[in-house]
Design brief:
queuosine biosynthesis; alpha/beta; 6 helices; single chain; metal-binding; globular; EC 4.3.99.3; 9-stranded mixed β-sheet; magnesium ion binding; TIM Barrel
């Protein structure tokens, strides 16, 4: 297949720049501790300086992979699929989620919300970033809001974002891994004073799993 044909399929969401796919335990947020198959899609221009998967940013370094192939692998492992990135909404998620739904799979997404929401989702984890704020429409449908806390100002940002989500959205504060020892005590104190928030930790890193 020639490059132009491939790029046309990528633009339509029929192929995606696949960085990696793996079966593991969800380490964060509401579904932590549960088994899930992760599909990590390359491509992100949000540019968080503390991002722990910066190798996902350049979509050109990840092979365009047919949606059918991705689904064929996913169905072997779990009935819960997590689409992450990078920023998965850089691409049209409609073909992938339709194909996964045809296999009766539950589909979750982890997104900054910086791009238009496409696809069909059972669970939407919105993790907003200051660099590129979410599109307004995603706040109303997000199931959980996960704000990464790198410094004290992030608490103010968290409150600003929490004011935008729907009333059923679950609110999480999660320390950025490299400053966790400094920020965890602050987060614990914050949540104890304002229990609408819940502490989220990257438990998969403590477990030494992907």
């Amino acid at each position: 297949m020639v490059k132009d044909e491939v790029m046309t399929l990528v633009d339509k969401g029929l192929m995606l720049p696949l960085m990696e796919e793996f079966y593991t335990i969800q380490g964060e947020g509401y579904h932590k501790g549960t088994a899930a198959y992760f599909i990590r899609v390359g491509g992100c221009d949000v540019g968080c300086h503390w991002c722990d998967v910066k190798e996902s940013w350049n979509a050109d370094t990840h092979p365009p992979t047919a949606v059918e192939s991705i689904v064929e692998n996913a169905v072997k492992y779990s009935d819960t699929i997590v689409i992450t990135g990078g920023e998965p909404l850089t691409w049209d998620m409609t073909p992938l989620t339709r194909a996964l739904k045809n296999k009766n799979l539950k589909i979750h997404i982890e997104t900054s919300g910086a791009y238009t929401l496409t696809g069909v989702w059972d669970w939407i984890c919105l993790s907003p970033k200051k660099n590129k704020l979410p599109k307004p429409e995603i706040y109303g449908v997000a199931h959980e809001l996960k704000v990464i806390v790198y410094n004290k100002h992030d608490f103010l940002f968290a409150e600003q974002e929490a004011a935008k989500v729907n009333e059923n959205c679950i609110l999480y504060l999660q320390p950025e891994w490299s400053v966790r020892e400094k920020m965890i005590p602050l987060i614990v104190d914050y949540v104890m004073k304002d229990p609408k928030w819940i502490v989220s930790l990257q438990t998969h890193k403590y477990l030494n799993i992907p």
